[in-house]
Amino acid sequence: MNMFFNPRSVVVIGASNSPFNLGSTICRALNEYSPYDGKIYAVNRKGETVHGCPGYVSVADIPDTVDLAVIITPAKVVPGFVRQCGLKGIKRVIIESSGFSEGGQEGREMQDDIDRTARLYDMRIMGPNCLGVLNTQNKFCCFYGIQEDNFDMFVQDKGEISYVIQSGGIVVIVLESFVGDVVGVNKIVSIGNKSDIDEADMLEYFNTDEDTRVIGMYLENIRDGRRFLDAAKKVKKPVIAFKVGRSSEGAKAAQSHTAGMANNDMIFDNACKQGGIIRAQSISELHSLPKIFTHMPPLKGKRIAVFTNSGAFGGITADLLVDAGLEMAKLSDETQDKLSRTGQIFNVANPIDLGPALSMQTFLEIFDILLSSDEVDGLLPVPSLWHPMVIDAIIELTKKCWVYGKPAAIYTPNSVQKTISYRQEYDVALFESPEEAVRALKVSHLNWCYQNIKDETSFRRSCEKQLSGETGLCRNMIQSV
Amino acid sequence: MNMFFNPRSVVVIGASNSPFNLGSTICRALNEYSPYDGKIYAVNRKGETVHGCPGYVSVADIPDTVDLAVIITPAKVVPGFVRQCGLKGIKRVIIESSGFSEGGQEGREMQDDIDRTARLYDMRIMGPNCLGVLNTQNKFCCFYGIQEDNFDMFVQDKGEISYVIQSGGIVVIVLESFVGDVVGVNKIVSIGNKSDIDEADMLEYFNTDEDTRVIGMYLENIRDGRRFLDAAKKVKKPVIAFKVGRSSEGAKAAQSHTAGMANNDMIFDNACKQGGIIRAQSISELHSLPKIFTHMPPLKGKRIAVFTNSGAFGGITADLLVDAGLEMAKLSDETQDKLSRTGQIFNVANPIDLGPALSMQTFLEIFDILLSSDEVDGLLPVPSLWHPMVIDAIIELTKKCWVYGKPAAIYTPNSVQKTISYRQEYDVALFESPEEAVRALKVSHLNWCYQNIKDETSFRRSCEKQLSGETGLCRNMIQSV
Fold first, then answer.
1. I need a surface site. Which of A272, A403, B34, B42 has the fewest CB within 10 A?
2. ipTM exceeding the 0.85 mark
3. Predicted structure pTM score
């Protein structure tokens, strides 16, 4: 699978200098926008060079071995080119063309033809009807139609999150939404009709891929429920999956888009629960939530301490935490006394009302009191950014979270525009709404429970230690979150 | 009530030139940032002029009648100043100081004292523990602590939405979020502990206020459930209300913030249903949803046509519409034929897949076919902005919606940052997520049902016409949305 993301040489079949040619945009991106240093060839009717990539009339004419073929031609000539690739010894093929099983009987027959060829020559096929892959590490990207400014914006290299996305439109939103975020994409694969490579293959690959810390999925159907569940059970990383088609209307729409069987959504839902996959409630969660995994330690219990200097948000977040199945931490008299002694706090019961003005020193004392307390598993800070000192305090808080091994999902009560600009300017993990921050805490805890169920002995040990050791508690925890 | 928003003269009691004086920030805003042309006086211990506003030692010394007093002094001297106002004949008083019923027994006693004085002199009191009022029409704003750049940013004059907000923190978020939106604030009132004026008073006032088209509310409790319900039943405008305290933990937090009784949330919920108030699911809905009322005709039925050029969103929106109790419109063969004849569409069944490239002419034809069809009550367009022509088409669509009397909740599948910047640049009502667009359609329909139940005869007539006239259908519609 690695060869799809790190090919030493690639041929773009269907790239020419004709106007509006999509293949040429792939050659352009690889050879002109990207520092990718593998060899790039083009195949077209005239054998012409495309954006500096040597062109040939046939795959057989390429005077070198080729790791990966990208095919972007009219559907009817694709089966022939797949055979050329087989004969040439190319083992990895991405078919970006559409017009196969999503388009009716004739398309399905062509897809069957391709499948037979692939088996014959022992090739792996990605697609058809897809965008292929993006690897931000070596900047290899075979998406068609990408412009230079988009390439520079999208293909940043700080990403630790890898995605399996069954639709080009979602790829664009995810990439766009990460611009200026503290997290980003490591690899994306758009698997389209998945005649061969499917979500289970990708889950297995990203699980072993060292650069990937969190896995995101957008799915319109599951090709093989059993295999998917087996793969999910083995994954040791957080997986967040959005699936369309909860309703029969949605399933019908998805079917006409990427040709999958309209799966029963209940089956997928059960697979997520059994396989330890977090089901996203909206597509925006695919990019908004991973930062709780990359930028914070896991939430190992349910007891959350809220602190804010905007009284309204004490109540709002308390409601949201209860809705989410988490709990407002009950602070003992001793802890409340410690908070009182910091001198300036309005209300020391949880939610803690900081009042309008605190010094940096007081902020730091509060962080230590709460994070060191065995009454608290995690924090939900809602500090309004009325003074530059507050952002400095937030940055210190993120460091302390790692020291104490407890997470904070930080929401600053401002407009989304302002939150995004602060996150970008100070490179700190801020969530965009109180709902998103609470959801982040919930998925952090849910993933911690899932990973520990996968390793049940150590999980039971942690449960016993933390939660007085009732039998059966582990599974109950998941059910109740 | 009008005198609170349009006073001819105002005195700020507690405004002085001492460092960190909050009253002086009110004088500064009114006299320096705002073109407000009423008279402004200050009352302080030295009788000194504050930011150009003549100062007096006592209210009695002011050589003129005064419409409105704003009190921002330590709590313990407030009752005395309220009496001075009564003696001076001032009938409207805003008490911004905190430290009353939200702070314990002593505070409650002072609040009782104020209430007695108010009854004696026939005065209306707003607050205590509040920010007071903002009227963007005459730019009268008595919020304390506001800075000049915030004043210019927040106090814009295109607003048609008026708010009753029981917390200063929420006021700031709402104002900030409207920056660059197509809608904005007309009036805001922060009513705090509401010892006298409460949410029911404000609902009645905004219902009669000609400049207000939509009413938003943030509440931590309801002072008088019966009065609130009576007021709600008479309101002829859309009302969107967020209430904190759904859980007992949230109610407890709200109580310590603005001192209300922890109401049973079920009672509020029932009052909303009976009174025709739309309950917001998050505080962001207070600013995100009103544009469906100000910028689109109402949704009179449930049948929605979706069109998109990003196939994934066909399925995503179909799921969301079904979840929301709306319906995917079933397009007849005749309508599908008409769509086919436009020549370039991938899939003419609903959700309609436009395919990658359409001309302006095709867009306009599609709008006319769908909006004129009696199979369709409203549109959910999800066009990606791949070409400047698409935004021109969207602008034409918004005009056609008024011609046909059917709404479109438009979502462009891009990052939130990009959607906000397009909305600002082209002054067109775009929603920020598919969830928000679907929710907007739902609340539009819900409000239409509510308003018509309030006027039951005409409502039954519309139901019969649209929905084949089953008895009892009206109330069923609301229950099922």
1. A403
2. yes
3. 0.91
